[in-house]
Design brief:
The protein is built from 18 helices and eleven strands. The strands form three sheets. It has a six-stranded parallel sheet, with helices on both faces. It has a three-stranded antiparallel sheet with strand order 7-8-9, with helices on one face. It has two domains: about 240 residues, Crotonobetainyl-coa:carnitine coa-transferase, domain 1 (Rossmann fold, 3-Layer(aba) Sandwich), CATH 3.40.50; about 100 residues, formyl-coa transferase, domain 3, CATH 3.30.1540.10.
Length: about 400
Amino acid sequence: MNDVPNALDGINVIDLSQFAAGPICTLSLAQMGANIIKIERPLYGEQGRPKDGGQDMLWAILHANKKSVTLNLKSDSGKEMLKKFIQKGDVVVENFAPGTIERLGFGFDTIREINPGCVFCQIKGYHDLSPYSSFPAMDGPVQATGTLASQTGYYGGPPTVSNVALADDPAGHYAVTAIIAALYQREHTGRGQHVRINMQEVVISGSRMSFVEQKVMPARGGAMLFAGKNAPRNTYPTKPRYEDDENNFVFFLVRDSPGQKMWKTFCEIIEREDLFDDPRFIDGSLRFDNVEVLEAEIKKWTTARDKDEVMRLLCEGMIPAGATLTIEDIIKSQDMYDSKFLQTIDHPGLGRITLPGSAYRMSDTYVPVKPAPDLGQHNDEVYKGFLHLNETEYENLKADGTI
């Protein structure tokens, strides 16, 4: 697409990550042009691979555009090979369980000694001073400890953990930002540095607007209590598009403001100008106090239209609204393909599959989606071409089980 290098062309990333947060980080770096060398266990691969060492859709999604090599990091010869990778790497990324990389002998001090210019990125659950610092961490538990669950759900209901990876995914992208900043700083200092991303802190950062009320903890209330008491602000039912439609809803909000201009527009759109003059609804706080009565009236309008029409009519009046789209809706949206966010590729093991591309939009960077690698698919290319091992050295590594 471009006649210039991609943003991270020439950056070599040694990928020791597993499961989700780390692989999301290295996937995003790959989508900017970095060379990702994913190091996996011989025979079995990374813990996120299917148990047979093959591929499934999750693997195909998280590991597109990467190279896979096998290496036994518990053997002395494997550790020597890892040193060679670090010597040639610009970035090392790992998100093993707490203390694992240090027990292998590759903490930051060791990596800096091997390659002073290397950026070492670790993604963990909690900071080192946390009482949870030694605990294993995955997306759901960190949504809980990061306050997200306590703020999500409805009145009287339990805390709710989202099915969307709201800890893993943002942590991966925080890591990308910090890595790129560290690479930029290296241009001035000549040194790499230690990047540490703690997932709990990432999730709490997503709740920074909840710190507005320092003495009153945010309560569960659906979306209604975000940034103060105001209504309408909720997810409203609409006319089903087909039988058993479980996602016939639209979220919208009417912002409280002097003069109530948006509220007046909303009342006009739903053809209920009488609500604007109703003393129970003259501002956002009063509308919130009388929300059950108000929403009963609003639902009469929304349930007579499908979610696409409700969204269109409100947005045409500059009322922020969003239909509850599903993954199926997105996969069927031609604009997603036209914009090249969704890309359909031929996968050697899975056939024709559709994968999301990069949400980082850059005018001089475009990396087409390539299939995720099979276990050890790039051993020959990387060990001989990247590390420059001769044939005898390479065959010896295979013979003794190092790779």
